[in-house]
Automatic annotation (TrEMBL):
This is DNA ligase (ATP). InterPro entries: ATP-dep_DNA_ligase (IPR050191), DNA_ligase_ATP-dep_C (IPR012309), DNA_ligase_ATP-dep_cent (IPR012310), NA-bd_OB-fold (IPR012340). It comes from Nocardia albiluteola. Coiled coil: none annotated. The keyword Ligase applies. Its EC number is 6.5.1.1. GO terms for molecular function: ligase activity. It catalyses: ATP + (deoxyribonucleotide)n-3'-hydroxyl + 5'-phospho-(deoxyribonucleotide)m = (deoxyribonucleotide)n+m + AMP + diphosphate. It comes from the Bacteria.
Length: 310
C-alpha cells in the first residue's frame, strides 16, 4: 500500500495516526519455519543482502509484515539511505555487516498465523502488531501518534533529521499495491526517483569524475529532461557512478524530447538504465528541479516505470 504526497496535511484529528517517515527501503517480509525473507516494492528478493534480519525472528512463523529497512547514522542514529546503499545488492561480509548495521522498522502486519488481517482497520492491525512483541535486536516497532498536530510532528521529524511524516486514517484497511489518500506522506523535502540520461564533466577536484548527472522522467509516455544534480555526492560516489556511466555511454540522445540547447551541447549521453533518488524543493514551471541534491542509486527500482515528479 502506497501513500499519496500531501503538501497540506489535515490538522490535529483523532481520525488520523501519525508515523515518522524513514529514509530507507520499503520491504515486505514473510516469516516462516525456514526464517524470514524480504522483498522490495518491485518484488526483488533482498534476503541475502540482510542476513541479520533474516535470522532475527527465531521461533516465529506465519507472519507477513510491512516495514522499512534502514541503516542508522552511527552518530545521530537517523536513518541514512546513503549508508544503506553499501548493503543493497550485496552478500555482505562480516566486516560490512559490522560497519553498516541495519534495522527493520515494522509499521504494519498483513498476516498472522498465515491468516490475512488486511481487512482489519489500521488501528486494529497496530494493536495486533504490538501484541506480537517483535521489538528487539535489529527489529524495531516504532511508535504511532493519534490525533497529534502534524505541524508539530514535522518539526520533531526535522529535529531528528528524518524525511518527514506519514498520516494514516485509523479506520483504513490495507490495500496492497494501491496508492491511497487514506495514507498521506508529508516529506520535509520532496524525494523522487529519476532516470540518469547522461552526465556533465566535472571541474577542479571533480575533473576526473563528474560534475553532475543529467536527469530524466517520463511524462505522457515520453522520456524528458528534468534537470541536473551536482550536489550530495561523496568523492568516492562520484568516481563509482562515473565508472558505471562509462560502461553505458552512447553517442546519441536517449530522450524522446529535445533538451535545452546548452544541455544538448555539453552532455555525455548514456542508456537510461540507472535510477537515482534526488531530493529537491520544487519543480519549476519549465520542468526543471529546484535545489536538487543527490540521495542515492536505486537498484531496486524498475527504470521503465519511472514517471514525472508531482
Amino acid at each position: 500500500m502506497l501513500a499519496t504526497v500531501s503538501e497540506r496535511p489535515p490538522g490535529p484529528d483523532p481520525a488520523w495516526a501519525i508515523e515518522m517517515k524513514w529514509d530507507g527501503i520499503r520491504a515486505i517480509s514473510q516469516i516462516s519455519r525456514g526464517g524470514a525473507r524480504f522483498w522490495s516494492r518491485n518484488g526483488r528478493d533482498m534476503t541475502l543482502s540482510f542476513p541479520e534480519l533474516a535470522e532475527a525472528f527465531p521461533g516465529i512463523t506465519g507472519l507477513v509484515l510491512d516495514g522499512e529497512i534502514v541503516a542508522p547514522n552511527p552518530v545521530t542514529g537517523a536513518p541514512s539511505f546513503g549508508r544503506l546503499q553499501h548493503r543493497l545488492g550485496t552478500r555482505p561480509s562480516t566486516a560490512l555487516r559490522a560497519a553498516v548495521p541495519v534495522r527493520y522498522f515494522v509499521f504494519d502486519v498483513l498476516e498472522i498465523a498465515t491468516e490475512s488481517v488486511m481487512d482489519l482497520s489500521y488501528l486494529e492491525r497496530r494493536e495486533r502488531l504490538d501484541e506480537l512483541q517483535l521489538d528487539g535486536g535489529p527489529i524495531r516497532v516504532p511508535p504511532t501518534w493519534i490525533g497529534e498536530d502534524p505541524a508539530r510532528m514535522l518539526r520533531i521529524a526535522a529535529d531528528a533529521s528524518l524525511e518527514g511524516i506519514v498520516l494514516k486514517r485509523i479506520d483504513s484497511t490495507y490495500r496492497p499495491g494501491q496508492r491511497s489518500r487514506a495514507w498521506l506522506k508529508v516529506p520535509l523535502r520532496k524525494v523522487e526517483t529519476f532516470a540518469v540520461a547522461g552526465w556533465l564533466d566535472g571541474t577542479g577536484a571533480n575533473q576526473d569524475s563528474l560534475g553532475s548527472l543529467v536527469l530524466a522522467g517520463r511524462l505522457d509516455g515520453q522520456l524528458r529532461f528534468a534537470g541536473c544534480v551536482g550536489s550530495g555526492f561523496t568523492n568516492a560516489g562520484r568516481h563509482a557512478i562515473r565508472a558505471a556511466l562509462d560502461q553505458i555511454a552512447r553517442p546519441d540522445l536517449p530522450l524522446d524530447v529535445e533538451p535545452p540547447p546548452g544541455i544538448a551541447r555539453s552532455t555525455h549521453w548514456c542508456d537510461p538504465v540507472i535510477a537515482v533518488d534526488v531530493a529537491f524543493r520544487e519543480l519549476t514551471d519549465d520542468g526543471v528541479l529546484r535545489q536538487p541534491s543527490f540521495k542515492g542509486v536505486r537498484s531496486d527500482v524498475d527504470v521503465s516505470a519511472i514517471g514525472w515528479p508531482s
